[in-house]
Amino acid sequence: MGAERIEISTDILQAISSDQAFYYNIIPKKVNGTSITFYCGPKTDKTSLSLELKVLFGREIFLESMNEDQLQRNLATYYISNKVSTGNTANMLSQEGFLETIINEAYKINSSDIHIEASEEKGRVRLRVDGKLIERFNIRKEDYPALVNKIKILANLDISEKRLPQDGRISLKDKENIQDIRVSVIPSIYGEKVVLRLLKKSTTDISLEDLEMSAAQLEVYSSGVRRINGIVLISGPTGSGKTTTLYATLNLLNTMAVNILTIEDPVEYTINGVNQVNLRDDIGLSFSRALRTFLRQDPDIIMLGEIRDDETAQMAIRAALTGHLVLSTIHTNSAWGIITRLHDMGIQPFLLASTLNMAVAQRLVRKLCIHCRQEVEEEKQMKIPKTDFRMPQKYYQPVGCQACNFTGYSGRIAVFEIIEICEELREAIKIDRTEINEYIRAKQIPKLSVSAYDLFCRGETSLDEVFPILTTDY
Prior knowledge:
Blueprint: H1 10-13, H2 18-24, E1 26-31, E2 35-40, H3 46-57, E3 60-65, H4 68-78, H5 98-108, E4 111-118, E5 122-129, E6 132-140, H6 144-154, E7 166-173, E8 178-188, E9 191-199, H7 215-225, E10 230-235, H8 242-253, E11 260-264, E12 275-278, H9 287-294, E13 301-304, H10 310-321, E14 325-330, H11 337-344, H12 349-355, E15 356-368, E16 374-377, E17 394-397, E18 409-420, H13 423-430, H14 437-442, H15 448-457, H16 463-470
Parallel strand pairs: 2-3, 10-14, 10-15, 11-12, 11-13, 13-14
Antiparallel strand pairs: 1-2, 4-5, 4-9, 5-6, 7-8, 8-9, 15-18, 16-17
Helix pairs in contact: 9-10, 12-13, 15-16
């Protein structure tokens, strides 16, 4: 056999835990009511191992040899190594701590979200890792409601309410730290769908330098957010790292000499010295109402989780005009698109021109695994389809190894487009000019596509990751 990946269904994979798979160096091949068939290494003592597994699982055990390289590749692909050898649990769904197992595994592989969802015949659990969802567990239909109810109880939600969306929060303590989890529950046709957002404490300590902006971008951004008034807006789709950038900004500005207030939906991370408020639409505490109250709290800096409606936009402009620095996010496709979006919300061009300090757009792309990325040399430069960019003479592509669970990628990195609003751009905003490409080229401001292309040329990511950004150059 070569070292190719074998296809194994989620139902079969979850017959054993990750710890058991690595401890015994096995992968399940077939499971039925009376027996389990495993792949094992070519040098395994099959007699001894089958006896031990028979006692552990209470079924007949059959073992099939597999090439060691292929076995290790599939182990790293389908299971997560815990570096701790344990082998004392049976089928994971029979464990009392199944939810804790899911959460711990998600934290272990740096997952950002856990999706628990029902279909007509069963439930499933998917983990979002580096922006992509992977299926990890299947759940019997009859066990699904109990799992959802356990989550709702931990999050202090109403288990009897199954018709309306609910939001909550869970804090789980282990020996080392506290795991903070945001919970969202919505009704679906086959049962309630739950999404758990894993909030990592490390985000509260992140600095602007950690965001890996270019030196020029970092200088421009740091200068813009240090002004005593005005608005700084960050745009991008959901999951593009906007909140992380805002928290890094607050860490920079958070000193004893300033009063910082935030209104968030909900508060994701707590920062010492910052006064943070949770949005509560159910009792009328909206972004706009909170912002109106904030102005009576003697703030220096105000952070809004998002500008999502006309009233909030108007209040943000008012706060900036009265001598406050306002930080927020907004959904647009580019940095300059922020101006058009605010115009659509009814903000007069002359007000926007006098208050906007900086417009930022950002995206996240997956980073190539440094252990296995493969260098490729092009004999001649070819144009990248649908773009004006050309393939570099040398670039890297993903391969896959044990270090990255054979995905070829490890972690993500942000790409930025940062436009500081100078006098020339303020005049452009006043006359509602939508095209500023000439200005951007003259000032050598890297657009999102240029920043993404530079990452690709430096070998930090692949063409597949940056191609959507290269072909959508607003």
